[in-house]
Amino acid sequence: MDTSRVLDFLHDRQSRAERAVLVTVCAVEGSSMRNLGTIMGVAQDGSFAGSLSGGCIENAVVAEALEALKANAPRIVRFGAGSPYLDIKLPCGGGLDVHFQPLGDGDLMEQCRKSIRERAPFSISLGDTPRHLDKWHAPTFDGESGTFGYWPAPVLQIIGHGASVEALARLGRTLGCWIKVFTPDQRIIDGLTAEGIWAYRLARANQTDVLGGDPWTATVFLFHDHDWETQLMLRALELPHFYIGAMGGRKAHAQRCEALAKCCATAEQIASIRAPIGLFHSSRDPQTLALSALAEVIRAYDEADFAAGAGYPNG
User: How far is CA 105 from CA 19, 71, 204, in A?
Assistant: First the structure.
């Protein structure tokens, strides 16, 4: 979830004619706080964005990045088990191989950010000359060079009314999700728009043409008046997505399922709806409901096999 922020940081430093280093986790031994391909950016003044651990190695990573910058050459350093840093041990007992790539004057960062803006999977190939690749590639590392793929960030498409819509939109943005809000409540639209969050006014319950989707889209329905849901939910089920959830108890969901079935939704589509929504149920305030729902969405995103869905070989 930090990828976009790290790339923005590196691009910003390059745009100021400052030198910077792209740092990537290339191999993991044992357990680790981060996945393969996790990145961190370090600037020539020692400032950085992202993290590769729970705080155990970041200072050493910055020091190595500055040394790589001074040598103007990529390097790979082991942290944790088997590391030359005898005083740095990962609490998990594992080890990380980390690649340091000084960035030149090329447009690697801009190409990556373009893919992010266009919601296109991409990869970064590390080596003497780092390259942007247009498609997602499964992680590979041969001890000197490697390739790591990145999926688009989740879109959180929130459809509903009430304070939970606002709470979920704000929380999702904080986590780095792309936020789209559809609501009949103009007050919510005015408030979120003023905060820079995209919001659209629904004029009627069958206004389904405004919804969108891709394989990295989660749609969350937050209507207390469930008569708003049926047509919009049918459309959301037809569009690409990795998650659809809806607020309401078990009785309300049974009525929802009945209404969807009458409109020819398939049993498989109906069974895919997460309801009651969230990791912990019976949430009694908007903020808790938002946290519960967002946690379920992010867990679904982390567990989704996007490579299989897109027809990519998965390593």
Answer: 9, 16, 51
- For 201, phi then psi, to 5°, come to -85, 125
The answer for residues whose C-beta is within 8 angstroms of residue 196's C-beta and 6 or more apart is: none
Question: N- to C-terminal Cα distance for the chain?
Answer: 21
| Average pLDDT rounded to a whole number, residues 59-85 | 86
What does pTM read for this prediction?
0.88
**Torsion, CA 189, CA 192, CA 196, CA 198, rounded to 10:** -50
The radius of gyration computed from the CA coordinates of the chain, to the nearest angstrom, equals 22
Confidence label for 127 from pLDDT (cuts 50, 70 and 90): confident
The arithmetic mean of pLDDT across residues 144-156, rounded, is 94
Which strands, in side-by-side order, build the sheet including 131-133? 131-133, 122-126, 146-150, 140-141
Task: Determine the pLDDT at residue 217.
Answer: 98
Check whether 94 has a pLDDT greater than 90.
no
3-state helix, strand, coil in the chain (%, to 5): 35, 25, 40
Length of the chain: 315
**One-letter amino acid of 2:** D
Look at residue 247 in the predicted model and tell me its pLDDT: 92
| Sole residue written with tokens 């709470």 | 167
Are 54 and 32 in contact by the 8 Å Cβ rule? The answer is no
pLDDT in the model for residue 104: 81
Helices (DSSP H) in 34-150: which residue ranges?
A: 58-71, 108-117
User: How would you list the strands of the sheet with 39-43, edge to edge?
Assistant: 48-49, 39-43, 20-29, 95-102, 75-80
Burial profile 233-257: b = 16 or more Cβ within 10 angstroms, e = fewer: bbbbbeeebbbbbbbbeeebbeebb
CA dihedral 234, 236, 239, 242 (to 10 degrees): -130
Residue-level pLDDT at 197: 98
HSE at residue 195, side-chain half, CA atoms within 13 A, is: 17
Are 52 and 38 within 8 A, CB to CB?
yes
Q: Is 222 within 8 Å of 232 (Cβ atoms)? A: no
